[in-house]
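During the no-cost extension, the postdoctoral fellow (Dr. R.K.) reprocessed legacy sequence entries with the updated structure-token encoder. One reprocessed record is reproduced below for audit purposes.
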Amino acid sequence: MKSFKFMALTAMMSGVMAFTAACGSDGGSEKSGGAGSSSSGEQLTGNVAVDGSSTVFPIMEAISEEYMAEQPEVKVSVGVKGTGGGFEKFIAGETDMSNASRPIKDEEKAGLEKAGIEYTELKLAFDGLSVVVNKENDFIDSLTVDELKKLWVDTGKPKKWSDIRPEWPKEEIKFYSPGTDSGTYDYFNEVILEEQPIVSNATLSEDDNQLVKGIEGDKNAIGYFGFAYYAANKDKLKVVKVDGGNGAIEPTHETIKNGEYTPLSRPLFTYVKNKAVADKEQVSDFAEFVIENAGDMSEEVGYVKLPEEEYKKDLDKLKELQK
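Re-encoded structure tokens follow.
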């Protein structure tokens, strides 16, 4: 299996896999019994439309490349609208699958119910939301959860590092955050900001690569995003250990997997439209391929795979939909 660790991240910047809403309504191979390439070797046709989380994007991009190598007549289009934006498209019936870096919200569930769309949640991997600063920053090693909150909650005026710890420089802090359509923003808002407004002078972007560039270019910058983006840019950024009450912990595969990196560890998801799995063989086959390969591909692009029994549970869910 070839490596997609850097290609997946680079592809998002170039927009290679940008897609149009029409893909979600295109037909393709109708279900006629049996799975697809993953079980029968049958060659399929049609489209699979996926959108949502930029955090999940590297996993889904890598998987889609592998899948289209096996099924060249199926076009899998992967967008990066953000978790919230992805669910908007899912509710509008424009996509077959919606990637998310947080669980679906009650209002999104209600929107899908109103639209008559039934769906199934599938877990893909674990992520450790990573707090990073500029590589030249030589005074920050770790931050407590309370300090993170003090940093990021808006007070109506610019903040200096010395506002957080008196011995730190009296330099204005530059903030970089995922945009408000991002599930990463939602998660950070819930566990760190506790639903209070984020600093008003933060640079917001759904494109995590733009956040990387911003932090890399500003010695007084701080930001956060999914672990894979830090892992792919370790030479450009400095990660900050987080003290959730049991000592300062650095996000690593091990600390994310064993739960030590708290409270910023979280699962990553994709949501599939039940009717698309039942009626369109290429969607059914791709969804099955996703779960069969999510563990290896999540590790390949910098995340942490789930226990095997979790993937088995998701495959069982899909097989129920395929009946």
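The chain has two domains: 5-126+269-322, 130-263. The chain has a mean pLDDT of 89. The remaining legacy entries will be reprocessed before the final report is submitted.
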